[in-house]
Amino acid sequence: MNKIIGATMATVIVAGALILTYLDYTGTEYVCDKCGQQYKPQPVQWTTGMHLPTRRHMKCPHCGNWGWHKRVRVPDERDFI
Ligand SMILES: [Zn+2]
After folding, report:
1. In CA terms, which of 5, 8, 25, 50 is 20 to 30 Å from 14?
2. What is the secondary structure of 24-78 as a DSSP string?
């Protein structure tokens, strides 16, 4: 019985983490240090990039600059948190 409870808890935690990650991705964009353009990164780049709470190390799609780009929140119709 404990195994079933454990498996259910693990599933809930993983699903919750995925939902939060998805909401975090859809509700944020990044601003390039060099050219100042705001952009939404590719999901692959976003998930694999090194990051801090407010910055993420990625390549700018506008000028090609690699840097720690600042995170900004964008309004989203699904943004209910
Ligand atoms: Zn740039």
Report:
1. 50
2. HHHTEEEE-TTT--EE---HHHHHHS-B-SSEEEEE-TTT--EEEEEEEE---TT
